[in-house]
Amino acid sequence: MKQIINLFTIFILALTTAEAQDLVFHPLNVKNGLSDNQVRYIIQLPDGRMVFKTSGNINIYDGANFKYIHQDSRHIYPLKGYDGFYRIYQSSDSTLWIKDHQKLMLVDLTTEKYISNLANYFKNIGFKEQIDDVFIDNKQRLWLRSGNKLSLKNHSIVLDLSDNDGVLQDVDSDKDCLYFFYNTGAIVCYELKSKIKKYIANAYPESQKAIFKNTSLIVKGKNGFYQLRNGSKGGFFFFDLKKRTWEKLLQTPYTLNTLVVDANGIASISCANGIWIINSISRKKSYLPTILKKDGSKLNTEISTLLYDRQGGLWLGTANQGLLYYHPDQYMFTQIGRSYFPNNDGKDIIVQSFAEDKIGNIYVKCQSEIYRYLSNSPSGNSLELIDIAHLSADIIKKLNIEKSTQTFSTNNTAQLTDKHGFKWTGTADGLKVFDPLTRKQRTLYTKDGLSNNFVQAIIQDRSQNIWITTSYGINKLRTMPKSGKIYITSFGANSGTLEGEYVQGAAFESSDGRLFFGGINGFSILEPNLPSIDKLPFRPIFTNLFLRGQKVELGTSYDGSVILSKSAPYIKHIDLAYNQTFLTFEFSALNYQNLSQTYYRYQLEGIDKQWREIFSSRAEDHLNTSGILRIAYTNLPPGKYRLKVMASNNNLEWKGHVALLNFTIHPPWWKTTLAYVIFVAVAVLLTVVIIYSYLHNVRKRLEQTHREEILLIRIRNLINQQYLLHSEDKPWLKITDQEFKNIEPNSTSADIHNQAEAAFITKAMSLVEKNLDVADYSVEQLSRDLNMDRTGLYRKLITLMDKSPSLFIRNIRVEKAAEMILEGKLSIAEIADRVGFSSSSYLSKCFQQRYGCKPSEYVNLYKNQHS
To answer: Which residue positions does the secretion signal occupy (predicted)?
Structure first.
């Protein structure tokens, strides 16, 4: 802050000596992106961005680019109690209240939009009556006047103004008091706690009320209030809070437009024909009637508004020529061009060399003329044509007069060995540097930071900086002897250098430390020990996000979701989808002094192991010539990230604030924790279902087998009983001894629920056993022998035994084959033939399905089970 105040002081001193040396302003207008050239008001946001209210709309400037906030009739609220000029108030909730003659607008900076229908807005905060005027005091409290009542936005304080004379024009505060400024020139003080009127003080007598009644502009100072008043005349007043007295500091016969006051009480006032500078302490006044632009022309328009920014620069808003900006350090180089050379019509101004005499006069040699440079003449920088006959032999030798013509060689070999032992060699294609520690040589090109590859001249100043001129621009190089690191700073026309080419070998340092650089269109001068600010007053601001190369717009949906719900400077965290990984982040250092001399370093935690530093306008470093930083990352994996950015206008020190931007790239839904939980749950559920299904099927098969065995046992019991009664008549009903062993002890014929069904099964079994040796005994034959159709037989056997007729026949054949195998009298082929199988292989297949083993293995298996 102290450095900025010092810059204000430098600026004021420059203004007070404006007659000796004009200030040079840099224009900023519609060519640079301003919406229109009619500038009405200027403010600076807390984050450092500039806001310019023009006749067309709101312009928000980040040092390189403009954003516009458009308005229409829906955004205008009738403000009948305000008859003044443009006023913009900043509120603590990131809003701008804009007052114009009987008009009110409200801008939400987080959405970069005007608020529509302010009548509803006021109703929503409890004000149903018409609002006549609004004010914001220096504590950013919003006050609304309706009739004779003034209320705080939250209604916690309501003041009755009915006993005050005149029209309320301004409101401001100090400590626990609120001050009202009326068109009568009166200031009325209220104590907020008691709501009691403490005193009234008038700025001028009754006879002058009509002179200053129209408009008022209040600026809070250290010891009181500064007021700009207009009517038939313009007036500048100061109210001392301790003495409770007014003082008129300036009166003009014309309108005074805008007032700004710095921390030292230096007031700057814009008007139709220039700027007033008034020291409120010493009461000294200075007037700057003309403004000199960069191109040397003078401004001829009304200065409608002005503002000091927090970097020490002065902004001028004009009535029809846009913006003008001045900073004491903006133009580091003084440009001496063709207009400074006397009698230069048709003559060259290719500056080839410089020389200095014993009393400090600087001589400049061109191709055909010699000039003496006069820096302290009454008219400022000028050149005086000198006859060579009047020059001393020493000056002639220094100017190298014998070199009568300028040659442009492609074998430029400008050389210099600096105080650290580094050897520099300038060529037509790069700058070679030899490091004495590593004994290695490398070549620097534009990709390393040079403004141009054709090096014309090399010189070292008293601070051990290396300066080189090129075919376009000037470079400063600083070396770190221990590390061998080289820092390069480029200076172009926006720093005051020549726009044309510089000349080979034309570099010179005077006895007072000034550097002179000769070119084909004049020469440039660099003053020694220029003041500079090492620390920028603002942290870099996040200005834009690009997704897959496309600029992300506020409130717009991308891939089904809104990425920026607020404007970029107000974003603290960004959520991105898994496929939104090609990102470019844009930052601005808000370096209005000299955009091209902005340096950055950045680091993405989790990706960059260390800070990445950028010291030049190299495209591959994503820093363009406007000083805007663009950082690109591609194919980032899902995760949480934090991007850190710092900025400086000094290429060696990083003392500024760190800008932080957090963003999260969410994984695809199938890679989220919830998805993994669901996948595990589904897997467990499927496993349970599979196990359950398997157990259910096994149990069902066991139950089926058990039912089948029980039914067979019961049938065998029935057959056994029949056999006991008819064994002589029906020998085929005899069951084996082994089957008798499998009969349950408690099983009797009473267990058969239906004697008819048991008889049916017995008959069916007997028919099959009777025809075992008939290979083609089929289901059709069995159904005919039972006097049934095939469908009826199928249903019957499925109901009773849960088996199809073909399986019923096959099982009986297999069981009979098992008996024969145990007897051991026949071969497998013979048994297959006896029990009606077409082949032994088919018998083996069916046997395995029934008993779980091959026929050849059955005997051993049977013995093991019954041993």
So the answer is: 1-20
